[in-house]
Amino acid sequence: MKTQLDCLPCFLKMALAGIRAACPGQEDVHEKVVKHWAAGFAAADLDESPPSLAGRFFREISDHIGAVDIFKDQKDAANKRVMELLPEIREKVLGSEDPLLAALGVSIIGNYMDCAVAGEFDWEAELETLEDGLDCELFSHFLDKLEREKSLLVLGDNAGEIGLDTILTGLLQDRGVQVTYVVRGTNVLNDATLVDAEYVGMTEVCEVVSSGVDTPGTVLDRCDADFRARLENAPVVLSKGMGNFESLWGVLPGIFYAFKVKCPVVAKIAGHPVKTSLFCREG
């Protein structure tokens, strides 16, 4: 999808939150970063996807503060909280009428752990309504396809969320589906990297690979060649999170999407209101 004008103030909000957390009290640095971003908007190509533009702007922050993971504390806190709750959540999923559907619901709810909307949504409160509103017919089609292909490529999104993804991944592995889970190539926003995959135990559940991207979404021209080959050859792809949706919708038809609708721009494109747990497919 293309970047909308409403995306630009959202970028600034994320930048300011991140730089304030990374450099507390350094108002001169905060001002330089925000002004640099605001000036960059004038030359921004809005035909690019939001993750593509945001990735470039976030890379430029290093010019002011060096190679600092500005959302590290938030990522660590999300991973820690998920690991504290994971045994209880897994038990609830396994005790449900449809554990696979419930696991998908949990995985989508975890997408609320997003620095772009920090504090706006309560993912823990939503755990009482795991399967609400999901397209069960499409999910059945998804499972039928997995039954035939026995292979799934999952494009991961956020730290914390990746811990909840271990439940669905494990259940699919138990059904004989070979799952490969994909993380970002470097620190950007609060997106999951190999470090997060190891912390939450995803590396013990399935194969984990990097897409190589330094953007908060799977921007194809920023991906490693090896990953691009994996993506092109994958018979079934599950794209997690809104950043991946923003990067791939209208670009890569045929894949499945699972995410929380968290902003009016995406709500309009997806045709579902904010707060929807969305499992959908394009084409």
UniProtKB/TrEMBL annotation:
Recorded hits in InterPro entries, A to Z, give: ARMT-1-like_metal-bd_sf, ARMT1-like_metal-bd, PH1575-like
Span of domain Damage-control phosphatase ARMT1-like metal-binding = 4-275
Q: Which Gene3D superfamilies match?
A: Uncharacterised protein PF01937, DUF89, domain 2 (1.10.285.20), Uncharacterised protein PF01937, DUF89, domain 3 (3.40.50.10880)
What's the protein called, per UniProt? Damage-control phosphatase ARMT1-like metal-binding domain-containing protein
